[in-house]
C-alpha cells in the first residue's frame, strides 16, 4: 500500500494519535507502506514538527534495534493558557453557582471534546512520572480519569462508594470527610497491581477528603503514588487533607459570587 506521500503522512499521523504513548515500530511502518525506514523517519519528522506547532505534543522516536515512534502528550504553554482561560470564563458565570460553595461543571467533564483536552493537559503534567495506572472516583471523575489514562496509554481504576456484586472482590478503606463523617471507598482487587505507579485524578477538591481516600486505597494495594491531579480546587480551606497536588483551575469564593481562574495565576504554594 505504497500510496503517495500525503496519504502516507495522514495515515501515520492517525496511527500515532489514536494510540497515544504507545510505540509503533518503524520497521512495520516501512513494510506497511512499502518504503524504506529512512523515508518513514523523514515522515515522522514532518509529523513531529506539525504536532509541536499545534501545541499538542511531540513524536518520540526510539532509535534502538526495535526502533519505534510514539506520540508524547506535551501541551504547549500557550495552548494550555488559552484553553483553561476559556473554561475559567465559562465556569465563572453566576448561573453556575450552587449551594454550599459549589459550581456546576458536569457539562464540561461530560463533553468529550473538553474531557479529551483536559486529559491532555493532565497527561502532559504527569507524563514524566511514568504512571502504570490512573485512579479516580465515581462519578464525575470518570471521564476526566479515562481521558488522562487513554492519553498516557495506561488503564483506569475507579474507586466506588458502594460495592456491587458485578465488581467482584474489593478492598475497602474508610476516610473522614470535611464535616467529620466517615465514608467507605471500594476498589476492585484486580484493578491495581502491587508495586504499580499510580496517578490519582480528582474532579473537584475542597478539603481533599476524597483524594485522601484514594491515596489510602493506593497504600492498601502497596502501590506507589506518583502524583495527584485535580480539575478544580477550592482556595478555601487552604489546608487540605492531602499535602501535595496540582490543580488546573482554582475556585475563589471570597468575593461576590464565584471566580474560577487557572491555578497558575495564584501563588503556587496553594497547590503544591
From TrEMBL:
Coiled coil start-end: none
Domain of life: Bacteria
Species this chain originates from: Dethiosulfovibrio salsuginis
Any GO MF annotation of the entry: DNA binding
CDD domains referenced in this protein's UniProt entry, alphabetically: PRTases_typeI (cd06223)
GO annotation terms (biological process): regulation of DNA-templated transcription
UniProt name for this protein: Purine operon repressor, PurR
Record-annotated Phosphoribosyltransferase domain positions: 127-249
Stretches assigned to the Bacterial purine repressor N-terminal domain: 5-73
Amino acid at each position: 500500500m505504497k500510496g503517495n506521500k500525503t496519504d502516507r503522512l495522514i495515515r501515520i499521523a492517525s496511527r500515532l494519535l489514536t494510540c497515544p504513548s504507545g510505540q509503533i515500530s518503524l520497521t512495520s511502518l516501512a513494510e506497511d507502506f512499502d518504503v524504506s525506514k529512512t523515508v518513514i523517519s523523514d515522515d515522522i519528522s514532518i509529523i513531529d514538527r506539525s504536532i509541536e506547532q499545534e501545541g499538542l505534543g511531540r513524536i518520540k522516536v526510539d532509535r534502538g534495534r526495535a526502533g519505534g515512534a510514539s506520540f508524547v502528550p506535551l501541551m504547549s504553554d500557550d495552548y494550555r493558557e488559552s484553553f483553561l482561560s476559556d473554561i475559567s470564563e465559562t465556569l465563572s458565570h453566576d448561573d453556575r453557582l450552587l449551594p454550599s460553595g459549589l459550581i456546576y461543571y458536569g457539562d464540561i467533564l461530560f463533553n468529550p471534546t473538553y474531557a479529551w483536552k483536559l486529559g491532555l493537559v493532565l497527561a502532559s503534567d504527569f507524563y514524566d512520572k511514568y504512571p502504570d495506572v490512573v485512579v479516580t472516583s465515581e462519578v464525575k471523575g470518570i471521564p476526566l480519569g479515562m481521558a488522562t489514562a487513554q492519553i498516557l496509554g495506561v488503564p483506569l481504576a475507579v474507586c466506588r462508594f458502594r460495592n456491587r456484586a458485578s465488581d467482584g472482590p474489593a478492598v475497602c478503606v474508610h476516610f473522614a470527610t470535611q464535616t467529620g463523617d466517615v465514608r467507605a471507598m471500594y476498589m476492585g482487587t484486580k484493578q491495581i497491581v502491587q508495586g504499580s505507579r499510580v496517578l490519582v485524578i480528582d474532579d473537584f477538591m475542597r478539603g481533599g477528603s476524597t483524594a485522601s481516600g484514594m491515596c489510602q486505597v493506593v497504600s492498601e494495594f502497596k502501590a506507589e503514588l506518583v502524583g495527584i491531579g485535580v480539575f478544580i480546587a477550592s482556595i478555601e480551606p487552604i489546608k487540605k487533607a492531602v499535602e501535595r497536588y496540582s490543580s488546573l483551575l482554582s475556585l475563589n469564593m471570597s468575593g461576590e459570587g464565584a471566580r474560577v481562574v487557572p491555578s497558575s495565576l495564584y501563588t503556587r504554594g496553594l497547590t503544591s
